[in-house]
Amino acid sequence: MTARPLPARSRSLVIGLRAAGALVLAMTLASCSLLVGDKPDEAPTTAKADPSIVASAPAGLDSFYSQEVVWEPCENGFQCAKVTVPMDYANPDGDTIQLAALRAPSTGKKSGSLLVNPGGPGGSGYDFVRDAAGTHFSQSVRATYDLVGFDPRGVKRSAPVTCMTDAERDAARAKVYDYGTDTGIAAVLADNKAIAEQCAAQTGPLLGHIDTVSAAKDLDILRAVVNDSKINYLGYSYGTFLGSTYASLFPDNVGRMVLDGALDPSISSEELTMGQAVAFEKAIRAYVASCQQGAGCPLTGNVDSGVQQIRDLIAAVQNRAWQAKDGRMVNATMFVSGLITPLYNDQSWPALTQALESALKGDASLMLRLADLGADRGTDGKYTSNSTFAFSAINCLDYPMVSDTAAMRAEEQRLRQASPTLGYFFAYGGTNCVDWPYDSVRTPAPVEYTGDAPIVVIGTTGDPATPVEWSASLRKQLGNASLMTWQGEGHTAYGRANSCLEDAVDSYLVDGKVPADNTVC
């Protein structure tokens, strides 16, 4: 018997985890006290797009591009607003939804806004800017831009996908299935169908309109209401997919765009899953090598031996779920989720070392805490976001998936061979969308960009969630773009890399100086 397979995130983010902004911030920035610069005016301010910006609105969308947006003081020094967008762009006169946005006002003489997406799909840009404005960005960027974070449609505060209670989420995470039998496959399909029906009943018709193309069209309305004729945008992980989709739809509206930890829009869901499985296997080996070079590493012998000890732990939990100190049972999926969470940021590797040390002594409590962190579950048992549901709902619309049982079992074997430690846990993702109430609306294909403004794409050599090869592929597809590569470990680079990369990106965002293509830092 084995646990429910892990849905590949950043297809953050992966396996019930979070993207760069969401996951890494949860691990490293959540407790920071942030200073965002000049305190905004106490009174609300009203913003309306310039007539020339409204004039370029797509047909039938003038009222959305010309709307007055009220920015009110919020969150101890920020400004918040609601932006109205069509639920269905094919019927803009129909129902509408509201997107939640948060702004950190510029600390200097601003030249526009920088819209930020931390990844996911399902990550909250609102939370990212609120939690990281004072630490993640340089003084020059803060002085140049208003930082604007937003929750995309279906995410957290923006008409969120709603499916289950916290208790039901706990129960779903605790379930195990035997995928080696037809009975086990039937059980997971039945449970996923029930969850899909709950999502449809509780979310309503919006569930069929949270695809990335719709989110990219929202992004252009956001650009207009912050009064920018050209978009300035920073996207991480899934945010690169959103950004490249925007660039293909609105090439003439691109200003300065940074896509960090790129997704390759041309690959299938199955190719994406394989790429991540291989990259996470490499990340585990990199972690073990680093651990063994330091004092007190609980993994003995060489790297192969250390990795095998991790595999033995996973096998033990697969054989029989362990009980954590809080009384909850830890199955193999939870254990692997906890194992993977710190791999998104090498600054979190010491937390993984502690968790493994405890696990080798028979205690999976710390690994469960890491898994909960990745799933946005607080110590009080309450989940702080809907990212897991939004992730699944968006992916079911964005990616057609192979769901034939024989094909999924063949994929399992390929994944096991390519990623002996984790491959199995990436398998059977096709069961997630079989009974989704809405069909996928996109066929993976190379992105096309015809704009005059060069885009900066960033890859990290040790990135486990978006392999560095994907950034090179996206740069090639965009054409008018410059690729930067950071020689580092973890998911994405800007905001935690070296001065070589940080200074180059800052210079691009502030002064428009495009870094040389194929720069390696």
How would you briefly describe this protein structure?
The protein is α/β, with parallel strands linked by helices and 521 residues long. The protein has 18 helices and 15 strands.
- Mean pLDDT figure: 91
Q: Main beta sheet, described?
A: 11 strands, mixed
> Which strand order does the major sheet show?
2-3-4-5-7-6-9-10-13-14-15
Helix content, binned percent: 40-55%
- Beta-strand segment tally: 15
Structural class: alpha/beta
Report, as a whole number of angstroms, the end-to-end distance: 45 Å
- Low-confidence parts lasting 5 or more residues at pLDDT below 50? 1-41
Provide an overview of this structure.
The chain is 41% helix and 16% strand. It has 521 residues and is an alpha/beta fold. An eleven-stranded mixed sheet has the order 2-3-4-5-7-6-9-10-13-14-15, with helices on both faces. A two-stranded antiparallel sheet has the order 1-8. Strands 11-12 form a two-stranded antiparallel sheet. The longest helix is centred in the middle third of the chain and has 25 residues, at 269-293. It is globular, with a radius of gyration of 22 Å.
